[in-house]
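[job 4417] fold queue: 2 targets
>>> target A
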Amino acid sequence: MTLSPSAPLLFFDSGVGGLSIMAPTRVLLPTAPVVYAADRAGYPYGTKSESEISARVPALLGRLVERYRPRLAVIACNTASTIALSSVRAALDIPVVGTVPAIKPAALRSKSRVIGVLGTEATVRQPYVDRLAADHGADCTILRHGSAGLVALAEAKLRGEPLDLDIARDALDGLLDQPGGDRMDVIVLACTHFPLVQAELEAVAPRPLQFLHGGGGIARRVVQLTRNQPWPEDFEGGTAVFTRLDPDVDALAPSLAAYGLTRIEGL
């Protein structure tokens, strides 16, 4: 079957965090049609149970694929990826790229061999993270902290609201105050919302720290999976689709437009 140039890339997250994944992909594929889907009705994922997420995410992605017929889907959410990636891949007949904590590049970068993993509560407790730590950071001390407040901070930033930097400070302290935190030199941003507030984290850090996330690697993977596929000549604006439309979505519209998402729809 011939692939249409208009077949989009689908990015999925509970909220706006996946924009940190979509943005570097659009740099490499600037004319690619994009659909960005946010599960507003299920937000936030980081405080939900594994059973809720494993039931909800494959069903939603099935509906999105049926409606938008994407060439590829990106689960632009660490929590959803660490819990439901295998189920989604089994359910869909298109390539599915997941987002997992960047522990491997952090281990390669760290000089002190103490790495922080800053994510949601659901992500940092996952066995998937244990396996990444064992496979790529066996000689490192890996500290973990879950922050729901930092997710809310990122959402507030994109709505243009005043920001409480104490939220960013408390999230960092959750790592720095652990045994070994004084030697930590690299922090993995293990929630796609968190790169959106990296500047705020850097501003409140008591000393220079390196922050890493997986957006660039995922962008390169998408390019690899779509090599030799046809694309439109020009970018015509992307679509943001929400499982619930509310005033917060209206407030996000200017930020979404800045990311190229000029149409907003409900699912």
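>>> target B
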Amino acid sequence: MQSYLTSGELQKQQYYQVIAGAAAACQPDISDPNVSNEKLAELTAEAAMKVVKWRIRQAKDEYDHSALLITDAYATVAIAYRRAAAAYRTEKQMEQLGTAAVHLVTIATSFMNAESQQGTAQK
């Protein structure tokens, strides 16, 4: 998140694209209305963490900006959804980081939705 905070507007848009994509990719395919939001958040966080762990194992170049950006995006999604699942109740520092991650995922998703709607309106 540190690199996001110090990035310029174009870089932030790139972050938004990658984070929104990661968040969408990790949504569980569950249509059962009885599944709680907390459980859905846990499943989303687990899916994102699986991707992070896999990407870390597969990493070949620690200076590959695109690869690091994608891994960071999935980590952000995992932290955000763990926060949403109330996993950080006893860890104040992680709770604060989780809150920041939730905000970033929300901003990214909102930005991409607005971009999509704007593109549709122009057609």
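[job 4417] complete. Note on B: The mean pLDDT is 90.
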